[in-house]
Fold this sequence. Notes:
Layout: H1 5-13, H2 19-26, H3 30-38, H4 45-55, H5 66-73, H6 88-99, E1 108-115, E2 123-133, E3 136-146, E4 158-170, E5 173-180, E6 187-192, E7 202-210, E8 218-229, H7 234-238, E9 242-244, H8 253-260, E10 268-270
Antiparallel strand pairs: 1-2, 1-8, 2-3, 2-9, 3-4, 4-5, 5-6, 6-7, 7-8, 8-10
Amino acid sequence: MSENLGVNLKLACSHYRSISEVCRQLSINRGQFNKYLSGQSQPTPYNLKRIGDFFGVEDYELGLPPEQFARLIGARVTILPGAGQEDPLVELLRPLRDHGGNLSRYCGYYFEYSNCMSVPGSILLSLVHLREERGTFLFERQERQERTSSIDVQADDWVRCRYLGAAFQLQDRLFLVDYESLTVNEMSQTILIPSFKSRITRLNGLKTGVSSGDRRTPTCTRVVWEYLGPEINRINAYRQVRLYRPDDPRIDDDVRARLEVGPIRNGLFEID
Length: 272
């Protein structure tokens, strides 16, 4: 049972939108359920029966070899060479997912304001979507950067950037790591201070990365996430994604103040 339960539970959960949904319907603590998935602990006979009833199988069947269990529930799986050997990168990051906090309340769309690393003195507005997928919190960040150093450019001069990443809550901070998926030539990390209010409005933090210029200078900037909602008009939101001058009336005073706090030239730290 101990060898196969976690694998079989993951397979059964894959038929649902998320592991959190399964936990809510089972009324089982998410942290405790994560221990079942990782093999750190075993369910009590009572909980094992509840889990089996939920997935429509006998409790002993949850301990069958994964290939047999997959056939039992009608799932299609491919047994590859080396099956059962965890990917080293997945194994390395597993504790972050299993022991991190629940980011469900932060899921949705955000405008991200930051001091542009490539065009100092300007503010970059990006569109971020944070979502939960099978118990893991993922996000996508859309940017549009200019080919030239001027903010006032024509539509043909824009370059699209699409960042993909994962988010974790460790103690009282939100950590987000992503990479540019179209060129795969850079990564960035964002650390946000969570909101302790009942309604999320804006989150403050710092983001590190590199400028897209020839020097690719390592840079750190203040960042503000503005919550837009769980569902938005993506087309209208994306039309606002671009560079802005600091005095642009579309950048309100609160955002401008959050980006300018502290003795940082143009809101940026440059690392030699």
